[in-house]
Design a protein that fits this description.
11 helices; 11-stranded antiparallel beta sheet; TIM Barrel; disordered N terminus; Immunoglobulin-like; alpha+beta
C-alpha cells in the first residue's frame, strides 16, 4: 500500500511538472482537452495582458509586439517574427518585431526608418483591463506618440490618437507610420493559408514558398491614388496617341487579411480611422525578407516636386509637406476561428461590421438587367463642335417596348449624354436637356412613363469633372499641392484635357441641378466622379488633404441621398450607406503576377444588401467567362447601348466604344435576363455565406437560404455533390 501511495504522489508531481512546463513553454501544443489559454502565462516571450470572451492578449514590453490567442482552440497569431533565419539586417529585424515602424523625413530624405528595436525610445506603458497604452518618445529624433491597444470580443484594436503625435525638433519629421506590420506573419511555407488582397473585387496570395520569384508585393492607396501629389505616369502610347496600358484597380474598401488555414485561425484587418491617407501592403515571402505579411501604412507627410518657375525646362525642388495631416490612426483586427477562418468568414465579418456600424443599409435587391444608353456626343467641326446623336428619348422608348416583347421587363437604365451639349458638357448645373434627343418634356415623360412600367431610368451626372473647352474653368478647379493645375489627359481628339472641380464647387453645382431636376417630379440620379475619387489639393493658397475631400464628399452625398433616388458608380466603402446600388463592380483584379487567385470578396460582402452591377458586358473579350463571373459573384449584368452604330463615335471622345448598337445586343440582353433572372429568383435576396475553390476550375458558392451554385471554368465536365457541371457552365443545387 505504501508503494502505491508513493507511486500516486510521484504521478501527481509529474502531472504538476507537466502543467508547469506548459505554462512556461514558448510553443503551446494544440488539441489538448483543457483550454490551453487558461494555463498559459506567456507565449513566445509575450506576457498575458488581458482577455475577452473569445481571445487572450499577450505583449512583449521591449517592442510592444503582440500575440493574440483563440481561447477555445489555443491557436494564435503573432505580430512579430518568432523565427529568425539569420539573413536579416538590423533594420529588417526592427521592422519585423516593432509594434510601430516609421519612415522619417530628414532633409527631404523620406527613406530613413525609426522603430522600437534599433532606436533609443522611452516607453511609458500603462495597463488597462482591456489592454494597454504606451507613450513612446524617440529621444534622438524628438518625436513621439501614444499607442492604444485593446482586446475586444472579436479580436484587437490598435490606435494612435492624432493629438498624441508630436514633433519637437526641427530636423526629423514623421513621413509614414505602419502599425503592427507583421501581424499574422509566417515564414516561407511554414503555414498553410493566404493573404487577402483588396485588389479589385478581391485576390489571394498563398503562403507557399515563392522561391524569391517576386521583387515586390501589393501596395495600394485606400480609395485610389492621390493626384494632388502623384506625378504624371510614364504612359505607354501607340503612335504617341493611344494609351495601351489599363489602370490598376482601386482599393474600394479599407480591408486586408491573413488566414492560417492549417491552424484554423484568421483575421480581417479594417482600417477604421486615417484610411484616406493609408495604403494596404500585402507582401509575399521572398520580397526583401522570407516572411509573408500584410498591414496598413499611414501617411502623415509626403514629399513632392515643386517647380521653381513656369518654364517646364527649368529646375525643381524636392520638398515635403510643411504641415502633417491630422487624423486618428486605427486598425481593427477581427479574428476568426474554426470553419470561419477563411476569406468567406472575413466577408461575413465585414458585412456584419458594416451593418452594425450603420455603414451598410439594406436596399431593394430585386433583379434587374442594366441597360444604359448614350444620348449625344460631340465631334470637331469647322468652328467648335457639332452633335453626334446616338440614342434619343424616343429611341429608348422603342427599345424598352422591343425588350418587353422579349419578356425583358425588369430593367434599370442610366442615361448618359442627355444634357445640352452632350456627354462632356460638364459640369451639369441645371436640368437642361439636349434638344436633339427630344428636349426636357420628352425626357421627363420617358422617365415617368418608364417608372409606371417598373423600369428605373436614371440620369447620369459626373460631378467631379469640368470641361475647360466648354465651361469657364478659371476658378474652382483643383491644383496639386505644388500649385500646378491638375489636368486629366483623355488621349482623345475633341476634348484633350479635363479638370477636377474642388469639392465645395461640386457640392454647389449638384445642389443646383437637383433642385432644378426634382422640380419636375423626377429624382432618379446616377452619380459618378465624386463617388470614387479622393485627392489633396491647393486652393487660394491653402492646402487641403484627402481627409478634407472625403469629409466634404461624405456630407454632400449624404444630403443628395436624402433628396434623390441615388445610385453610385463604383462607390468607395465610406459611401455605401448612401447608395441604392453599386454600379461597375470589377469582377477581376489587376492581375499582378504575385496574386495566386481572384475571389469575389466585395461581391460576397454586398450580395443580399444592395444590387451589384458588373462592368459593361460589351467590352469584355471573353464573354462566356465574364458571364460565369457574374454567376459566381451574384452580380447583375450591364450593357451600354446606342440606337445608332458605334462607328458614328469614331471622331468623338467616345471613340473607344467599339460595340454598342442595340440590334447587336438584343438577343444577348434577353438571354442574360432570362438566365440570371431565373438564378436570382432562387436566391431571393440571400447573402453569400461560403465561397469555395474546389479545384480543377470548379467553385461552389453557398447562400444563406441553402442554395448552392456550382461554376465550372474548366475544360472538362465534372461531377460535384452529385451534380454534373459542364465545361464553362454552372448548375444550381442544395
Amino acid at each position: 500500500m505504501a508503494h502505491k501511495r508513493i507511486a500516486k504522489i510521484i504521478t501527481s508531481l509529474l502531472a504538476s511538472a507537466l502543467v508547469l512546463g506548459l505554462m512556461q513553454t514558448s510553443t503551446l501544443p494544440f488539441g489538448l482537452g483543457l483550454s490551453v489559454s487558461e494555463a498559459a502565462t506567456e507565449i513566445n516571450g509575450h506576457t498575458f495582458v488581458a482577455e475577452s470572451t473569445g481571445y487572450r492578449l499577450y505583449m512583449d514590453e521591449s517592442d510592444l509586439s503582440l500575440v493574440v490567442e483563440d481561447k477555445e482552440t489555443g491557436a494564435y497569431m503573432e505580430s512579430s517574427i518568432s523565427h529568425d533565419d539569420g539573413k536579416n539586417n538590423a533594420s529588417w529585424i526592427g521592422a519585423m518585431k516593432s509594434a510601430v515602424v516609421l519612415t522619417m523625413i530628414n532633409g527631404n530624405d523620406d527613406t530613413q526608418q525609426a522603430d522600437l528595436i534599433n532606436d533609443d525610445v522611452k516607453k511609458d506603458i500603462k495597463y488597462t483591463d482591456k489592454g494597454f497604452t504606451a507613450d513612446l518618445y524617440w529621444n534622438k529624433y524628438r518625436f513621439g506618440m501614444t499607442l492604444e491597444v485593446e482586446i475586444t470580443d472579436e479580436g484587437v484594436t490598435a490606435r494612435i490618437p492624432d493629438e498624441s503625435i508630436h514633433e519637437d525638433g526641427d530636423s526629423y519629421y514623421i513621413g509614414t507610420i505602419a502599425i503592427y506590420p507583421y501581424m499574422g506573419n509566417s515564414y516561407l511555407d511554414s503555414k498553410e493559408g493566404y493573404i487577402l488582397v483588396p485588389d479589385g473585387n478581391g485576390a489571394l496570395i498563398y503562403l507557399n514558398d515563392k522561391e524569391g520569384r517576386f521583387k515586390s508585393g501589393f501596395s495600394g492607396m485606400i480609395y485610389g491614388n492621390d493626384i494632388g501629389f502623384d506625378e504624371s505616369d510614364v504612359t505607354t502610347l501607340l503612335k504617341d496617341r493611344y494609351n495601351t496600358i489599363s489602370d490598376s484597380e482601386k482599393v474600394i474598401a479599407p480591408v486586408f487579411g491573413i488566414a492560417h488555414t492549417d491552424d484554423k485561425i484568421a483575421y480581417l484587418g479594417i482600417v477604421e480611422e486615417g484610411e484616406a491617407r493609408a495604403s494596404i501592403e500585402c507582401i509575399p515571402n521572398g520580397v526583401s525578407v522570407d516572411y509573408n505579411r500584410a498591414y496598413a501604412k499611414f501617411t502623415l507627410r509626403k514629399t513632392y516636386t515643386q517647380p521653381t518657375s513656369n518654364n517646364s525646362t527649368a529646375g525643381s525642388l524636392h520638398i515635403f509637406e510643411s504641415e502633417r495631416s491630422h487624423s486618428d490612426l486605427k486598425v481593427r483586427y477581427i479574428f476568426l476561428s474554426g470553419g470561419s477562418a477563411d476569406y468567406s468568414g472575413m466577408a461575413n465579418a465585414y458585412r456584419e461590421y458594416l451593418v452594425t456600424n450603420g455603414l451598410l443599409t439594406a436596399s431593394d435587391t430585386s433583379y434587374k438587367t442594366r441597360v444604359d444608353f448614350l444620348g449625344t456626343e460631340r465631334e470637331s467641326w469647322v468652328l467648335g463642335t457639332t452633335p453626334v446623336v446616338m440614342t434619343t428619348a424616343d429611341d429608348v422608348r422603342e427599345i424598352y417596348d422591343d425588350l418587353e416583347s422579349e419578356a425583358v421587363t425588369d430593367i434599370l437604365s442610366v442615361y448618359k449624354g442627355w444634357q445640352k451639349g452632350g456627354l462632356y458638357d460638364l459640369p451639369i448645373s441645371a436640368y437642361s436637356v439636349e434638344s436633339k434627343i427630344g428636349g426636357k418634356a420628352k425626357l421627363t415623360d420617358l422617365i415617368n412613363d418608364s417608372k409606371e412600367k417598373g423600369i428605373d431610368l436614371y440620369l447620369y451626372n459626373d460631378a467631379l469633372l469640368i470641361n475647360p473647352d466648354e465651361k469657364n474653368a478659371t476658378f474652382n478647379v483643383v491644383k496639386k499641392i505644388n500649385k500646378r493645375r491638375f489636368e486629366l489627359t483623355t488621349y482623345m481628339d475633341v476634348y484633350k484635357n479635363l479638370l477636377y472641380l474642388i469639392p465645395s464647387r461640386s457640392d454647389e453645382l449638384l445642389g443646383r441641378f437637383i433642385k432644378s431636376y426634382t422640380k419636375k417630379g423626377v429624382d432618379n440620379l446616377a452619380l459618378a466622379g465624386v463617388t470614387n475619387t479622393l485627392f489633396s489639393y491647393n486652393y487660394s493658397g491653402n492646402n487641403y488633404s484627402r481627409y478634407d475631400t472625403q469629409s466634404s464628399y461624405a456630407a454632400t452625398l449624404s444630403e443628395v441621398s436624402k433628396n434623390t433616388n441615388l445610385i453610385m458608380e463604383q462607390p468607395f466603402a465610406y459611401l455605401w450607406a448612401d447608395t441604392n446600388a453599386f454600379l461597375d463592380m470589377p469582377l477581376y483584379t489587376s492581375a499582378y503576377i504575385f496574386e495566386d487567385e481572384s475571389v469575389p470578396f466585395l461581391s460576397m460582402v454586398l450580395k443580399g444588401s444592395m444590387p451589384v452591377y458588373a462592368e459593361y458586358v460589351n467590352f469584355e473579350a471573353n464573354k462566356q467567362e465574364f458571364f460565369l463571373k457574374m454567376v459566381e459573384s451574384g452580380s447583375y449584368p450591364s450593357f451600354y447601348i446606342t440606337k445608332e452604330s458605334s462607328s458614328e463615335l469614331i471622331y468623338t471622345n467616345s471613340s473607344d466604344i467599339y460595340s454598342s448598337e442595340y440590334s447587336s445586343y438584343r438577343s444577348t440582353i434577353a438571354e442574360y435576363d432570362e438566365k440570371l433572372g431565373e438564378l436570382n429568383e432562387k436566391l431571393s435576396g440571400a447573402t453569400i455565406e461560403k465561397h469555395e475553390i474546389l479545384g480543377d476550375g470548379v467553385t461552389r458558392v453557398t447562400y444563406s437560404n441553402g442554395v448552392k451554385v456550382y461554376i465550372n471554368y474548366g475544360s472538362k465536365e465534372t461531377e460535384v455533390d452529385g451534380l454534373t457541371i459542364g465545361s464553362m457552365s454552372y448548375e444550381v443545387g442544395r
